[in-house]
Amino acid sequence: MPDGDVTAQDAARPDPVAVVAQLKAWALELGFARAAVTGTDLSHAEAGLQAWLDAGYHGEMDYMARHGMKRARPAELVPGTQSVVSVFLPYRPPAVANSEAVMADGEKAHISRYALGRDYHKVLRNRLQTLADRLTALIGPFGHRVFVDSAPVLEVELAKQAGLGWRGKHTLLINRDYGSYFFLGELFTDLPLPADPPEQNEHCGRCTKCLDVCPTQAIVAPYTVDARRCISYLTIELKGSIPVEFRPMIGNRVYGCDDCQLCCPWNRFAVDTAEADFHVRHGLDDITLAELFAWSEADFQSRMAGSAIYRIGHAQWLRNLAVGLGNAPSTPRVLAALASRQQSDDETLREHVAWALAQHAARQKGENDDRRGAAPGHTTTG
């Protein structure tokens, strides 16, 4: 097209600044807490991404390496992309059971608070598509694609570059007004929209609480997570046997882990979600390991339908619960639950149940030895 020429469609389109203002207003109407725009240049992040992959920190998540640097190059992932609209939506359910109290009760199951309601992928994807549809109605057809943790996208880096917050030392995005309890989503567009200023400062200062509290020490350095040690990876992404060395550290965390967020000072600003789909379902915020372990596959499929937990399947769910039961107090209910699946057809589950029962047997032996050692007449000195 010769310089200076514009199509009739381009000439009729609103000013880009007005388009962005309208986009942000619609995003708020659709339930997003914030929306901002950035460009596609993430070249500054490529060296760090390559170093992370080279270190093997992605574990068995082969897809992280399979796409190479396309993850840091939006215009290669979706050819023609010029601008990215980044959004976030809070997910912490109102009146949710206290996480610290649940984790302190070894017979209960702690589930990451983002997974207590409906699957966030569908909720955010539908909202972002509605945002794109509204924009199409305003300016006419344009190239776009919606992403919600569903493709090789450096979503935290895009959100940071759009000014929505900064990367915490636990690698999650933190916002001054919302903490870190929110989901991110992106709308890639072929529109040359004016970008918002990036977040220039990282406001974690000298705080290392997230590094110090991590049960498995998965945050191996500020801003670097070794996924192979992360409880979220071990309970969700890892499909085989959980390494024995990490099982005692997992405690009763059966799906994901929130420890690095629970300790973060910025989460005193976190807000409860207004999205009903993220409210607690089936009492999952305060429920026992034994009750969940008793669910049949049909129970799991019916109760977890529409949940992010559904993705891991019943067998992996039981595997995680077996580890939690192995770390639980040796009560009759816990031991009976484990015994009920000793003869499971699933080899991985049988192995985890055997490990759990061995944990209880070892603890019982230790307690008996302690009692004998403390009995009158059994002194260790002459």
UniProtKB/TrEMBL annotation:
- Its main subcellular localisation, reduced to a broad class, is cytoplasm
Bound cofactor: record note: Binds 2 [4Fe-4S] clusters per monomer.
Q: What are the binding positions for [4Fe-4S] cluster 2 in this chain? A: C214, C230, C257, C260
Q: Which residues form the 4Fe-4S ferredoxin-type domain?
A: 196-224
What this protein needs as a cofactor is: [4Fe-4S] cluster; cob(II)alamin
HAMAP family listed in its UniProt record: QueG (MF_00916)
Protein name from the UniProt record = Epoxyqueuosine reductase
Species of the source: Andreprevotia lacus DSM 23236
* Recorded name of the encoding gene: queG
